[in-house]
Amino acid sequence: MKSVISPDQIIFYKENGYVIIEDFLNTAELEEWRSSVTAALIERNGQKMPGKAIKIDEADGINKDADYFNNVFDQLLNLWQTNDRVKKLMLDERIGKMAADLSGSDGIRIWHDQALIKKPWANPTSWHLDTPFWSFSDRNALSIWVALDDATLENGCLFFIPGTHRQTTFENPGIGKNMGAIFDFYPQFKTLNSVPAVMKAGSCSFHNGLTVHGAHANMTPGFRRAMTCAYMPDGNTFNGEPNILPDEYVNSMKVGDLLNNDLQNPLIYKR
Ligand SMILES: O=C(O)CCC(=O)C(=O)O
Ligand SMILES: [Fe+2]
Question: Cys-Cys with 40: which of 67, 83, 161, 240 at CB 3.0–4.6 Å?
Answer without folding.
Answer: 83
